[in-house]
């Protein structure tokens, strides 16, 4: 169950990162509310995952899911560049996440 919590925490991390963009520096009410809710849920779920998962592994996977998802949504929603170099770097992050999951002892 800890891995489910961790993946959900990563998804909510993507939500609050994207929400920061939509909230325009917390000047728009509803996007700001959604952003703060995503932050709270992300941290709460990470906390639940950390009950049984190693700290380093969980933290890197949590931030990795957030980073990769945020890059993907940045390209889709905001027209950010999807260059070969940038996508190669994202692939390295994914490889690291998969490696840590495969090598994790829980």
Report on the architecture of this protein.
The chain is mainly α. It has one domain. It is 82% helix and 0% strand. The chain has four helices and no strands. The longest helix is centred in the middle third of the chain and has 24 residues. The protein is flat. The mean pLDDT is 95.
SSE inventory with pairings:
Layout: H1 2-23, H2 29-49, H3 55-78, H4 84-103
Helix pairs in contact: 1-2, 1-3, 3-4
Descriptive tags:
single chain, 106 residues, mainly alpha, 4 helices
What is the quaternary state of this protein?
single chain
CA-to-CA gap between the ends? 11 Å
Estimated share of beta-strand residues: under 5%
Figure out the total of helices.
Answer: 4
The radius of gyration is 15 Å
Low-confidence stretches: none
Which class of secondary structure composition applies to the elements?
mainly alpha
Main sheet attributes: strand count, strand direction, barrel closure:
none
Q: Estimate the helix proportion, in percent.
A: over 70%
The tally of strands reads 0
Q: Domains counted in the coordinates: how many?
A: 1
Coarse morphology:
flat
Task: Please provide the ordered H/E string of secondary-structure elements.
Answer: HHHH
Whole-number mean pLDDT:
95
In short:
The protein is mainly α. It is 82% helix and 0% strand.
């Amino acid at each position: 169950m800890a891995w489910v919590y961790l993946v959900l925490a990563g998804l909510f991390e993507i939500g609050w990162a994207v929400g920061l963009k939509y909230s325009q520096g917390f000047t728009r009410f509803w996007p700001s509310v959604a952003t703060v809710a995503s932050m709270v849920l992300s941290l709460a779920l990470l906390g639940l995952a950390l009950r049984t998962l190693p700290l380093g592994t969980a933290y890197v996977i949590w931030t990795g899911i957030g980073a990769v998802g945020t890059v993907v949504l940045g390209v889709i929603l905001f027209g950010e560049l999807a260059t070969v170099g940038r996508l190669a770097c994202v692939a390295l992050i994914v490889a690291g996440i998969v490696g840590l999951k495969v090598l994790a002892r829980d």
